[in-house]
């Protein structure tokens, strides 16, 4: 998502009296985010307009002041609505307003709550700065609106809109969940739910805890399947905590033996791990990444080594899988896991929401693509 937008589908209109039954994806004017424990509360949002999908309202909630929502340039009021769908305690709001075309991108705005089907203004700001933190009288509300009167036909541009309780953002993806690079340069988010974290499995106690990446796009031509020569890169700065430099492949008989055991007992075994040749990276702040099925590990990648964001760590492969045991190129892909505070990223998150979260997480990569091939 290169800090902008992904998978633009539809521009849906919002009405106060009834929420839309269908939500668009990131880049739409209306959407719903439910990222489990990643965010304080699920919420829907809508905006009066968007100048372009690349500058959609999702940029308001990514903890990055330098990604923006742009309204249309019409001479009409603009607004941002956040709807939690249930009562929330609120005592502050933060609004980030950059300079746009030589002047502050919003000269004034009002903070409003929905009161008996009417919008009630509880605060006005006519002295707008870059970062505007407003302490509010403690309120309980489910819907809050930022309303922008307009005096000229120019876009309103906003970097962040945070609804707060005691300093904690209720509607923002924390910074540690954004700003990463996709581990496969040019790689695609899979369209099959079975390839996402949280998908059911006949082993690993019934849960798939990673992302299976099979395809990438080239500068010219359609997407293609990954091959042994495709490089893998570190999603962020970090320290290598595992590198299987002495990895030895399973024979076909060993693979069949451990596959039968795994399906019978519902778990995999450390002695012969289906993850194959692996590299793990500690990125700090409770975030760790795990690369599985590598065909090779780049020279210099070893336990204790420091890596930079985007630095190559190895090549994609099928190690630990039947294709390696058979000596062919069957099932080449990257199984990639993210762990945060000891839990895999994706636990309890629906597939449609997981795809959106991944696009926030890998915001330094352009994951936009109109379609993803199926295996």
From TrEMBL:
InterPro entries to which the protein is assigned, alphabetical: Cell_wall_metabolism_enzyme, Dup_hybrid_motif, FA58C, Galactose-bd-like_sf, M23ase_b-sheet_dom
GO molecular-function terms, A-Z: metalloendopeptidase activity
Keyword entries, A-Z: Signal
First and last residue of the signal peptide: 1-18
CDD domains: M23_peptidase (cd12797)
Matching PROSITE patterns: FA58C_3 (PS50022)
Pfam families cross-referenced by the UniProt entry: F5_F8_type_C (PF00754), Peptidase_M23 (PF01551)
Domain of life: Bacteria
Presence of keyword Ribonucleoprotein: no
Ranges where the F5/8 type C domain occurs: 18-166
The name this protein goes by in its record: M23 family peptidase
Protein source organism: Leptospira langatensis
